[in-house]
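Worked example 3. Consider a protein that binds zinc ion.
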Amino acid sequence: MAKCNFCGNKNLVFKNAEYIYKHEEHFMLFENVPCEECTFCGERYYEAKTLKKIERDFFDVLHQKRQPLKKIEMPVEIYAA
Ligand SMILES: [Zn+2]
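Given these inputs, the predicted complex is written out as structure tokens:
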């Protein structure tokens, strides 16, 4: 990634971040996901192979082919101003 597609900033840094995969009403949180992050707007870029692996792991867990590391509860609220 040479520059940010959103803001045009050329400073992108490698880091490991959290990623939430959503499919219909199912969510899965991935920790420690390698990405490049724009130092200006914070947009994150992931490699195609990283997203493929996340997708594969998500469906393995969804179809109970394997257990996730752990499960967490997440409070839900509808935003009302
Ligand atoms: Zn940016």
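Take a moment to read the result before moving on. Residues 4, 6-7, 9, 38, 40-41, 43 surround zinc ion (CB under 6 Å). The longest strand covers residues 26-38.
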